[in-house]
Amino acid sequence: MSLSRFIKNAQSEWMRGNGPESDIVISSRIRLARNIRSYPFPMLATNQQSEEILNQSEKLLRDSSIQNIGEFELLKLSEMNELERRVLVEKHLISPNLANESRNGAVILSENESISIMVNEEDHLRIQCLYPGFQIKEAWSLANQIDDIFESQLDYAFSETRGYLTSCPTNVGTGLRASVMLHLPALVLTQQINRILSAVNQVGLAVRGIYGEGSEALGNLFQVSNQITLGQSETEIIDNLHSVVKQIIEHERAARQRLMNESKTRIMDRVFRSYGILSHAHIMDSKEASQRLSDVRLGIDLGMITDVSSNVYNELMVMTQPGFLQQYSGKKLSPDERDARRAEMIRTRLNKS
Hints:
Blueprint: H1 3-7, E1 25-34, H2 47-60, H3 64-69, E2 72-76, H4 82-90, H5 96-100, E3 106-110, E4 115-119, E5 125-132, H6 136-153, E6 158-159, E7 163-164, E8 176-183, H7 185-189, H8 193-201, E9 205-208, E10 221-226, H9 234-262, H10 264-280, H11 286-301, H12 310-319, H13 322-329, H14 335-352
Antiparallel strand pairs: 1-5, 1-8, 2-3, 3-4, 4-5, 6-7, 8-10, 9-10
Helix pairs in contact: 4-13, 10-11, 11-12
Enzyme class: transferase
EC number: 2.7.14.1
GO molecular function: protein arginine kinase activity
């Protein structure tokens, strides 16, 4: 494997599978924050200390237990250019923080990209597992398995009273962030989304945009995750998220049925108008592309569009991001050039379908 292997294709292999509730749930993710005792947190570590963390992480890849899970590759951020880093962010394989500010930063990726372990990010290790559809419990099982292997080889920073110690106090305890990415166009169109999200916030969950904290919910994509990491067990956190997401799915399904019963012609017009524009436009900015692709995905899930796979939507949501567009073009592009290239890419992909 090589870096080019991970940035060549917009869609990770794990995304090609259709998990449970995949018409609404795009992906499920578990992230565990871990640090090694006797080393300062990355922001305070010296260059030598962060290099030692990197070396220990690389050594773990030779452990037979890890090799039984799959094939892994360690990629150093220092050996990547700006566009390559940005593509990995757009594919949700690394965080913007790791891409922009990291000393001896690296990422360990599994062959199908469902496992991503960031090294020397905000914490020494951030173990991430991604699954298609609504499989948050399955993602937790895999992350927990990897964490147990690492903990058997590393001396984690752990307190009997506080749990796992992390750079950010909001992660202390379990160090667990469980999140589910949802496509909720019907709740947005029926103007129920604010009421639903307000209720979600009241039960200890956070709602963010597609790239996590501080990002915008483009294309009707919302990331729902736990806020509490201290005082609850991992099982309690995941069960709470699972229960709430099930209710959100039910509300979205009810909203879609309401649209079909009361406004079918209007929704069909919206879907096919966006499909027509995407199929013929020669300029398309990222915000409009996200919204119109959301309309098309809704049309696919409602059975209005039958000749385009939902996987095309997943692929285009990454392919049309600025970093991937420029990496694919082999050069940096101005905003106007990106808009033209984005439109061309969408036209080509939809016509191919």
